[in-house]
Amino acid sequence: MKKSIMLFGLLAMTIVGCQTDPKGEDDPAPTPPVEELPDWYYTGGELGTAHIMTSHAFEQPATAVIDAGMYQSFKNGEALFENPFMSNQQGVRSGLGPAYIRTSCLHCHPGYGHGKRQESGAFRTDEVGNGYLLVVYNKDTEGYVSWLAGMPQSHAVAPFKAPIDESKITIQWLNHTDEWGNRFPDGESYELIYPEVTMPKDAIYAYNEGALTDEDLGNYGVKLESTIGIYGTGLLDAITDEDIIAEWAKQESDGYMQNGLNTNYFENGEWKNFYTNSAQGGDGTPYIRRYTYAMSRGPLQDGAGANAFWNITNATRSDRRFHYLDAAGSWVRASAADEDVQAGFDEYIATIDPNREYPEFWEGSMEERITAFLTSKNLPVEVSDQEYIDLMVWHRGLAVPAARNVTDEQVLRGKELFEQIGCAYCHRPSWTTGNDEVRDPARFFKGNELPRFPHQKIWPYTDMVQHKLCMVNDIRTGWCRTTPLWGRGLHQKCTGSPTADRMHDCRARDVVEAIMWHGSAESDARETVENFRELSKADRDAIVAFIDAI
Fold first, then answer.
1. Whole-prediction pTM value?
2. 339-352 and 330-337 helices cross at what angle (nearest 10)?
């Protein structure tokens, strides 16, 4: 089926409304085409596709936002995303800390997209663009360590001290040579690199303070995972659980994956591991898992972004009136016993509780008072309910950039080959959304506060299934949900990165490197990569052109 773009009025409104904070560029928005275009041009369907291809391409409100009259709420949420939180207790974006990961969401999602690859050296998070999160895990069990928060914090508000000292953490990029010598049969070569992260014990605050022993630390290791683009997540949320389960069942039945499927989640045609929320007002309703590489989250309304708006800055809201800290309580113990923290606590807590409404913060020994504050489950609310609603209108309402160059002969040839050699099996091109009855595991949203995307044919290029690529220094557990490809060809324009920064840790600097990282002997994509290797250079270039176009 083909469609014509006849949305001149809406597009003009979107273009004007979304350029209120220009970045000083002269690149104009494209004139809406009037010729018939293939439906895969409309990556987000009629309600979720943006037609702006400038560096603002990932920042556009979906048509669903405009139609629902939510534009101002969307812009309010955008401001919360972009601007830094502060440690003061009054005014907008207050309440940072006491320990935190970044001061703003934009730090991790430059241009609203995937994080940028960082060069070898110290692990620095004070620059916008470093979307890396440290994955600190036990090498023996592959589980997260309990003595750091799942998303480790490397900053703190005085008098507190950061759980980890990022200046002592280093990234080193190493060269990798694959079994083909990094060379195609026709002689063209490519390079492959991967990161190794070093975090010495003396970078760990609780260890230095004696709150952790060598035995407590165990055989820990550190990996990198970069943030992914936020745009289009509302559309992915609108895919029904039933359709995603059907895709897993189909792949289990097909039996093409040499590693099978992750039986922790799916086995014998049935979903096994559901996401629930019995805290924060939730009622424990089970939902299948669909977000993050590890598929650790369920619906978007209690997903990675909703969670990050709390734990990245550690600013409380009405459904989460407690601090995001490590499960073992090691940072609390170390902080409570730290003489420097004790010396500054009175001044600090006076800003949190100026009217002394929390007697436990003021009575008892200094160690008891600090512990009471850090472990409280009834802290003052720092992010209002309306601010959170605005943030989620923005989060759910971001459109996906339309596909580019959809009539280009090279791109069309690449699309044909993409399907022919097997890429489209895991990077499934399209889905059709369901009724999009917004699901909210935390039972926070009461009505129609959020935009919706019912019955849209969308083109994310993901099967929403986990697979294994078996790369050197692979992602934790090896299982990784297929990352959507939509919009990724605009990464460099939107983020300013000099490289394409593909894969979970940005190890691939261009599309060819990303493809070849799929090619280990144990990889589920091995056969597809073998097919890619046998293509002519012109055909390989065509696939690259197609991937960059979608």
1. 0.92
2. 100
